[in-house]
Design a protein that fits this description.
CATH topology of the largest domain in chain A: Rieske Iron-sulfur Protein
Radius of gyration of chain A: 29 Å
Order of helices and strands of chain B: HHHHHHHHH
Largest sheet of chain B: none
Strand content of chain B: under 5%
Helix content of chain B: over 70%
Number of domains of chain B: 1
Helix content of chain A: 25-40%
Largest sheet of chain A: 4 strands, antiparallel
Oligomer: heterodimer
CATH superfamily of chain B: Cytochrome Bc1 Complex, Chain C
CATH class of the largest domain in chain A: Mainly Beta
CATH architecture of the largest domain in chain A: 3-layer Sandwich
Shape of chain A: elongated
CATH superfamily of the largest domain in chain A: Rieske [2Fe-2S] iron-sulphur domain
CATH architecture of chain B: Up-down Bundle
Strand order of the largest sheet of chain A: 2-3-4-9
Structural class of chain B: mainly alpha
Shape of chain B: globular
CATH topology of chain B: Cytochrome Bc1 Complex, Chain C
CATH class of chain B: Mainly Alpha
Order of helices and strands of chain A: HEEEEEEEEEEE
Number of domains of chain A: 2
Largest interface: A-B, 11 and 19 residues
Chain lengths: 160, 220
């Protein structure tokens, strides 16, 4: 009698273990894909693209020049157009510095004010010098720069 | 130490009693057909989980619905898998629910004292069919559009109130953005809330009254 009781307990424990394993397998089979599914768009790597800014002949020496262009973007299932703009600075017409017009503080757009020889951010009074370095205000670092290249007199910047 | 903590919690929550009532209750000697109810519940939970995941990306408007579904199936990691589970799970849900109903019917398990369990079960079947009908429209492809056109027209032929029911189902005389939005809302809010409520009642009755034994041939 005691033997059959023992084997009953054994059976019950066995079933418990089987149920736990099956639940674990099902949970994993759904849980892991679910995690990949949720974080998928966040981990998607953007590919580098060269954006055509315009003719270098338009750029005056030692004067930050704003270039604006329309680029096509894809977010999720939506294809949209987005405006891309950047300031270009050159002191010799050969080497070009392309700077983002996005303030490094909180992302507002900065504007070049020729009279005051600086980039000004309207949001929190951040001021950047001609080369993008911080003059005053809250910005933590100079304006971001883009890699650029010139082909047939046309300036391209790399956006990654 | 760990056991102490478990006991401390159980003193407050009393979950052991509940666990025993649900999983350690006495049942007659039964067969595999008796697992169909649990299988239905499992599928319902699976549909809930995958459905919630789908709503993270799906957008119920005519200009985004189809594209967002294509995005889920082709661009997202495991998106085809999650949507596939929901898609095939939906069909399986109807099949298993009906099989469960047939088991109860042929074993006469709907009889006294389980009539209320049966009646809630019948309403649960209607809810499952409602899920199928509303969910079918959501991909907003040709098949979905025309199936819903036909399905709502069927409501439309009812004498007297037909046209009125068709308009309520479609949210107007034609299939439109309004139809898609109300089918979506019904699919993810109205029906799940109803299902959850009725499933709780159904399970409560199953546990309170107990399940039937396999009927015997002998007259007793």
């Amino acid at each position: 009698m005691s033997k059959s009781e023992e084997s009953n307990v054994g059976r019950r424990d066995f079933m418990k273990a089987v149920i736990a394993v099956i639940s674990g397998v099902i949970g994993t089979a759904i849980g892991l894909p679910a995690i990949a599914y949720v974080v998928g768009p966040a981990s998607k790597q953007e590919t580098d693209t060269w954006i055509r800014l315009g003719a270098v002949s338009k750029i005056e020496l030692n004067k930050p020049t704003l270039f604006k262009t329309i680029i096509e973007t894809q977010t999720g299932w939506i294809n949209a157009e987005e405006q891309f703009s950047a300031y270009v600075l050159t002191d010799d017409g050969q080497d070009f510095t392309v700077m983002s017009n996005i303030c490094t503080h909180l992302g507002c757009r900065v504007r070049w004010i020729p009279d005051q020889d600086g980039f000004f951010c309207p949001c929190h009074n951040g001021v950047f010098a001609k080369d993008g370095s911080v003059v005053s205000g809250p910005p933590p670092r100079p304006l971001d720069r883009f890699e650029s290249k010139v082909e047939d007199g046309v300036l391209f910047v790399k956006r990654g | 130490m760990f056991l102490n903590m478990v006991n401390w919690l159980d003193d407050r929550f009393g979950w052991r009693t509940i666990w025993e009532a649900i999983f350690l209750r006495k049942i007659p000697h039964v067969n595999w057909f008796y697992t169909l109810g649990s299988a239905t519940l499992f599928l319902a939970i699976l549909q809930g989980v995958t459905g919630i995941l789908l709503t993270l990306y799906y957008v119920p408007t005519p200009d985004h619905a189809y594209d967002s579904v294509v995005y889920i199936s082709t661009q997202l990691p495991a998106g085809w898998f999650i949507r596939g589970l929901h898609h095939w799970g939906a069909s399986a849900m109807v099949v298993v629910t009906v099989a469960h109903l047939l088991r109860v019917f042929f074993y006469g398990a709907y009889k006294y004292p389980r009539e209320a369990t049966w009646i809630t079960g019948v309403f649960l079947l209607l809810i499952v069919i409602g899920f199928g009908f509303t969910g079918y429209l959501l991909p907003w492809d040709q098949k979905a559009f025309w199936a819903t056109t036909v399905g709502t027209r069927i409501a439309g032929v009812a004498p007297g109130i037909g046209d009125w029911m068709l308009r309520i189902a479609r949210g107007g005389p034609e299939l439109s953005a309004v139809t898609l939005a109300r089918f979506f809302g019904t699919h993810i809010w109205v029906l799940p809330a109803s299902l959850a409520t009725l499933v709780l009642v159904h399970l409560y009755l199953v546990i309170r009254i107990g399940i039937t034994a396999v009927p015997s041939r002998k007259e007793e």
